[in-house]
Amino acid sequence: MKRVLYFALLGVLAVSCQNDDDSTQDPTPNPSALTRTYSGEFLNDYFTLQCDITKDTPGFLPTIAARAYGYLGIAAYESVVHGISGAQSLAGQVDGMPAGSLPIPIADQKYNWAVACNASSAQIMRYMFGSNISPENLTAIDDLEAVNLENLSDGVPAEVLNRSINFGVAIADAVYDVSTTDGGHESYLNPFQLPYEIPVADYCWIPTGAALQPLSPYWGSNRSMVSGTMEQNQPGPHIPFSTDPESEFYEAANVVYNQVMTVNTQEEVTITEYWADDPFQTCTPAGHSFNIVNQLLRETGASLEKTAVGLAMMGLAENDAFIACWKAKYDHMLIRPVSYIKLYIDPNFNTVIGTPPFPAYTSGHATECGAGAKIVSHLFANANGDYEFTDLSQLQYGFSARTYDNFYTMAEECAASRFYGGIHYTFDNDLGLEMGYGIGDAIIENINWPTNIQ
Amino acid sequence: MRSKIVLLIPVIFMFSCTETQEKQPVDMWPVGFENLVELHCKARDLRKQRFDLADSIRNYTDLQLSNQESNEPILADDVKLRNWNIQKDSLVRESKDIADSIKVLLDDVIVKLETDQKRVFNDSLIKAVSSRGCE
């Protein structure tokens, strides 16, 4: 009897081991090496270059930049997904990209997924920056692609190289086709989406600086990448607008006023500037989030598998965060604290940094940082949600690095920075963070992402 | 006597730990530390210049906006603004060059240092930068 039990136990163990093995087998009958066998560093380099080109290219303001990052993430992921065990294409999961709409690799033919990803990433970047890219930056993409190809080609047969490059380019072409119907196509040519008639009322946004028109007023009508993220994460009404000094709204503005005029510490001013993403030198708030995830992927030695999944997740999150936030901004059209304070509290008030040209409610920083925090927590944090992290990405711009115990602390600081700066009411930030967390959760839960990624 | 020794042990232990934390030989970092300090000092100075210039432009255009009745674009041919824009272009170029150099140096820091080492590295950098009088 003991012997029977012993063999039964062995049998159970063998079956359970076999199941584990099955879960790591390539679902497609493809002889190619798995995506996880390649380093992800060359893909990190594309996102770094995307940041540099965003800074230089006219029209790449926060909304438009987030969208370009989003499609780069999708194209990179789709070029390697067939080399990830148990992974599912985003076709059929991302809105506007029906199942079967993207090229698939030829069965029984060998591909090099890193080479495919290299071609796909370079091609989609050329598409996204379109006619506004400078010749120097176009050359920078070509150069990066050529250097990567040389590094990745060692020992790879010519026919595998060609097949992989063609596949990558075909993916980029198909993803670009999808992008042309989402409402943001070539928006860099008209980032203020003129003509737009600014509504006029006491509660309404008025210009806060040189830009007399607000940025991307119709952005909220764009198609989200993940269905329902925009609709299901709207913030509802803000506290009622009022100019009565006894009102809750007046008090909210007065809190901003006091913070800037008397409460701000030097540390809070530094935080304001740190998250402002710097005048003239920024690759937008979404770019900062991508710099963070890029650093995390590199410092954990992520393979191409985890790098592609992580950057695709962040791409979807940032794109959808901006769409949902911009929908709220133009539905509510709320006046900025600086305008309200100058009109009703103190005409000589000045903010710590410039107020960007769009309505207050909700905060774009809070929304995108909240969505991004969900993604990096999902990818890196332990079961308690903790991950000590030193953000080195702003050192290059002359800031000291900042360290956080977890990504939510980081998102809260990012949101609070807009209050310290006099850019937002606290409720813009609180509701923005809530929206961002909801969007981040939706990106993680509503898409069938591969598990056990390395 | 024995109890004194027992009490002394944690104190000695504490001091030995403190010393290890404080002493970070510069050549332990996987970058040319002195070079990074120098570049970071320049980057800090450029950052200050960028924010100052942004403030000047903002305050000037705010003033124009408050004086302006029509919705015409703000004086595109304004000499002051034109000069500031020239200054801005040069600042951006210089900042980008410094940023690229720092990025290259930081590559190894990102990959080779553990999280707690990064924190110590950053503390050392701040200390070195401020000892040079960089704001």
| N-to-C CA distance of chain A | 43 Å
Identify the overall geometry of chain B. Answer: elongated
Q: Which two chains have the most extensive interface, and how many residues on each?
A: A-B, 31 and 43 residues
Radius of gyration of chain B: 25 Å
Strand content of chain A: under 5%
Radius of gyration computed on alpha carbons of chain A: 24 Å
Helical content class of chain A:
40-55%
> What's the end-to-end separation of chain B, in Å?
52 Å
User: What is the chain-wise order of helices and strands of chain B?
Assistant: HHHH
Which strand order do you get reading across the main beta sheet of chain A? Answer: 1-2
SSE pattern of chain A: HHHHHHHHHHHHEEHH
Structural class of chain A: mainly alpha
The biggest sheet of chain B amounts to: none
> How many beta-strand elements of chain B?
0
Let me know the number of strands of chain A. 2
* Content-based structural category of chain B: mainly alpha
Helix coverage percent of chain B: over 70%
Please provide a brief summary of the model.
The complex is a heterodimer of chains A (454) and B (135). Chain A contains 14 helices and two strands, in the order ααααααααααααββαα. Chain A has 454 residues and is an all-alpha fold.
Describe, in plain words, how this protein is organized in 3D.
The complex is a heterodimer of chains A (454) and B (135). Chain A is mostly helical. Chain A has 14 helices and two strands, in the order ααααααααααααββαα. In chain A, α9 (284-299) runs parallel beside α12 (364-380). The relative contact order of chain A is 0.14. With 135 residues, chain B is mostly helical. The termini of chain B are far apart. Chain B is built from four helices and no strands. Mean pLDDT of chain B is 79; it is low at 11-23. Classes of the chains: A mainly alpha (454), B mainly alpha (135). The A-B interface holds A 48, 52, 55, 207, 209-210, 212, 273, 278-281, 295, 298-299, 301, 350, 353-354, 388-390, 392, 395-401, 403 and B 40, 43-48, 50-51, 53-54, 57-59, 61-62, 65, 71, 73-74, 88, 91-92, 95-96, 98-100, 102-103, 106, 109-111, 113, 115-116, 118-119, 122, 125-126, 129.
